[in-house]
Design goal:
Blueprint: H1 2-51, H2 56-73, E1 78-81, E2 90-94, H3 95-103, H4 111-138, H5 142-163, H6 169-177, H7 179-202, H8 206-219
Antiparallel strand pairs: 1-2
């Protein structure tokens, strides 16, 4: 009994730790792409406006990566937009997606739009950097490993539904990262930790005792 409880507890810790590491690596990769995209976009725009030169190689690189960058930015890349010199507005306007082709159009790109795009990228990069630092701190907190491991276990049924196209990715992400799931995982983690200590000290698991009691009640 002691070994089973310790094994389950350790498994949750290990799953949580590796899940956190995987999540951090994913964020770092997205962060690196955003930083590279921002730097190359700014250099490209400077060359375009100051030397009136459209660098084809850089232009195509930006086009190839803008969809991924736009997906990472999410709602931050969407805005209510008023075109220069226009008397109307456009809702849910994706600035980066629409801005890049303007560099290669007869009308050309507008400086104000470029400045706004650079501002969006820089602000989001700063926000993502703080998110990465916050998650990196969790790698030094075993309690965070435990909660993350249990959260992963709770999310498995919803992951299977998503894989079989019975649940959308958006709904899955809300469940996976939702406050309710984290709260339930925290409560289970607390009970699991206390029960593991109880097993080590007394050799008995109150969780198993409760399960057996409930099983006997419902079997009658």
């Amino acid at each position: 009994m002691i070994y089973v409880a310790i094994l389950i507890f350790t498994a949750f810790l290990a799953i949580g730790f590796f899940s956190l590491v995987k999540g951090i690596n994913s964020l770092v990769n997205k962060y690196d792409l955003l930083v590279e995209f921002r730097n190359r976009f700014v250099a490209f725009a400077v060359e375009y406006f100051e030397n009136e030169n459209l660098e084809e190689k850089e232009y195509h690189w930006l086009l190839e990566n803008v969809d991924e960058v736009n997906a990472t930015l999410g709602g931050s890349a969407t805005m209510t937009y008023k075109p220069p010199f226009a008397n109307y507005i456009v809702k849910n306007y994706e600035l980066l997606i629409n801005l890049l082709p303007e560099f290669n159009s007869s009308m050309g790109a507008h400086r104000d739009n470029v400045t706004t795009a650079e501002s969006i990228l820089t602000r989001y990069i700063g926000s993502m950097k703080k998110r990465i630092q916050k998650r990196q701190k969790k790698l030094r907190q075993p309690i965070a490993w435990l909660i993350e491991g249990i959260t992963v276990a709770l999310s498995v049924p919803f992951l299977l539904l998503r894989e079989f196209s019975l649940l959308s990715a958006g709904v899955y992400n809300k469940v996976r990262h939702g406050k309710v799931t984290r709260l339930i995982a925290g409560l289970i983690g607390l009970i699991s930790m206390v029960d593991t200590i109880n097993v080590i000290v007394t050799g008995n698991s109150f969780t198993i005792d409760i399960v057996q009691l409930l099983a006997s009640v419902f079997s009658k």
